[in-house]
Amino acid sequence: MPSSRSGPERLPLAILALAACTFAFGTAEFAIMGVLPEVAEGFDVSIPTAGHLMSAYAIGVVVGAPLLTAAGTRLPRRSLLVLLMGCFTVGSALSAAAPGYGWMLVGRVITALPHGAVMGIGAVVATQLVPPHRRAAAITGVFLGLTIANVAGAPLSTALGQALGWRSTFWLLVGVGAVSMVAVALLVPAGPRPAGASLRGELRTLRRPRVVLLLGTTVVAFAAVFASYGYVAPQVTDVAGLPEGATVWVMATFGIGMTAGNLLSARLQGGPLGERPRVLVTGALLALAGALSALIGLAHGGVTIFVGMGLLGVVVFVAVPIIQSRVIELTHDAPTLSAASVHAAFNTANAIGPLLAGLAIDGGHGVASVNVVALGLALTGLVLWLGGLGVVRRIEARPAPA
């Protein structure tokens, strides 16, 4: 628990170390989107084929989140976080040195394996370092690293890759991973081994109807985000008609929007709506559909694409902390695996979204079609959420077996 001297407005320094980890993963996940054309050219593959590197990363998160979280159930969380960031660093080095496309795929998977576990464990650790009324702020602090990655990390690594070659982007990630390991080792309290932790108890929380609904909605709705943003580079050049160098600034605008959305999310959760999480989730899904609907037109303008991507960034990161906080609240008795599973859900979306959008491009509908695909997914997610709420109520109303 934090020292009494910290005061109600100050978060522990350990949050900074956890934010460094989310910064590393945010940069790793989104930087590939900015150098996708360069990677495709370097390996002599098409842009949709290079887009499979995004799906490979997402698959790594989906596989690694439950497996690594479960494997580390009995380890002290600081030690586990250091080991996981070591895995990230090794995968980044393999990506940077990959002699061929197949090795690049392997490197991306290894880099991604600890993503969900680190995000989930980091969020849980953050909530345990502060009083209950500061938990939303602590989670926001952890995710601030992810939003800063999109303001600075991904755009700067994209600029570096365009100037010095795409491999330099991934060597930068090696350095970021090493710094994160040191930050965790120095700033995160050692803490005891998790008391009473068991894989069976963690798995049991994933069967709760409201958790299943949240995770399923996250997969479908956020596939919309990745269907659009996954192809940000070709949208900037082929749809908006801007030079390649503008991609960095569009990505930075998206990141600024994410940062604003992250801070707005904390305010919403700390206000009267914080007591109505279903309303918050519904509002976030409606806003996502609205932003993608607007982006269909805004993507065609050299100025308006900045507006559209900035707006998308805002609504995305209004939703992410809300969903993460809600899942931890619903599984407070065994939250680690379920918190990690949120990021597995986001990255299942990251696998599905670019794949579906890539099919639209390969089908001859052009790069602009990715936003139409994205809107369809967002609306499907909204319908799933609203319909699922009724199903969950009926399940929970059933009398318990005697």
Automatic annotation (TrEMBL):
A Pfam family: MFS_1
Domain of life assignment: Bacteria
Keyword terms, alphabetized: Cell membrane, Membrane, Transmembrane, Transmembrane helix
Regions crossing the membrane: 54-73, 80-103, 109-130, 142-164, 170-190, 211-234, 246-266, 278-299, 305-323, 344-361, 367-392
SUPFAM superfamilies given in the database record: MFS general substrate transporter
Cellular compartments annotated: Cell membrane
Domain Major facilitator superfamily (MFS) profile: 14-393
Bilayer disposition of the protein: Multi-pass membrane protein
PANTHER family registered for this protein in UniProt: CHLORAMPHENICOL EFFLUX PUMP RV0191, PURINE EFFLUX PUMP PBUE
Protein name: MFS transporter
Organism name: Patulibacter brassicae
